[in-house]
Amino acid sequence: MAEWWQDLFDEKYLTLFAEARGPLHTAQEAEALSALLSRHGAPDDGEILDLACGFGRTAIPLAQAGYRLTGFDLSPQMLERAQEAAFEAGLPLEFHRGDMRQLPAEWSGRFDALINVFTAFGYFEAPADNQQVLTEVARVLKPGGLFIIDVSHRDRMISDYRETDWFEVDDLLVCTSRQFDPISGMNTEMMLWTDDSGERRSVFFKVHVYTATELTQMLQQAGLTPVAYHGALAAALDAHPFDLFSRRLVIVAKKDV
Ligand SMILES: C[S@@+](CC[C@H](N)C(=O)[O-])C[C@H]1O[C@@H](n2cnc3c(N)ncnc32)[C@H](O)[C@@H]1O
Known about the structure:
Blueprint: H1 4-7, H2 11-18, H3 23-39, E1 47-51, H4 59-64, E2 68-73, H5 76-89, E3 94-97, E4 111-116, H6 127-140, E5 141-152, H7 154-159, E6 164-169, E7 172-181, E8 186-194, E9 200-208, H8 212-221, E10 224-230, E11 248-255
Parallel strand pairs: 1-2, 1-4, 2-3, 4-5
Antiparallel strand pairs: 5-11, 6-7, 7-8, 8-9, 10-11
Bound molecules: S-adenosylmethionine (SAM).
């Protein structure tokens, strides 16, 4: 049977989550990413890898800002959308399909920075597989290169955990059922909705959610030293310091020289 992360990222994901990261939100994230890249010393025309780039949401505005972008993702549907968007914008982005646990061998030491945003980490059931992603991140960065990761923050998630919830997207009412396993640290969500033709639809995902303590240790183990923490990837970065109540955990780490 396919893993959930091999199945979710097609038109179902776009229906449920593309709206949540609409143009305004994306512009703010791109502004925050540019600010972090320049604040922490990435060259203005540096080579950036958007790891699990989805439909090119953050890769395209960063390329427009002058960085040389490569997008990497597993989903053919996401990559097709990203390629179309890059073509329409007239931007020379490179896209590659693959599994984030194994990046191309020839990429060792290639990138000035690598970004991984909107909870595109923690997908594998085995902790060693998630650690392997960070090992690959470190391998493809230049010494001193930057890694920016943006995930849900476990301490905050647990402090107001809701086992049932709902949200609206366009005209759809989406009901969510959640379960958190405090031993494995995995959060499971099932979302149910009725589509325009009256058919019942559902998606399921199961993601490791980390405390800042855990993710810091994992980064260090991979040879990536955290240099900054933020509570949101928002335009006014310094207005969102990372603390116990931050919904997001954004870490900037540097590859050890
Ligand atoms: C939540 S989306 C985030 C996409 C993008 N970073 C953004 O901010 O819009 C997660 C992405 O991870 C990709 N993905 C899932 N499993 C993957 C894997 N094993 N290797 C590479 N990419 C994967 C999905 O196809 C999807 O595009």
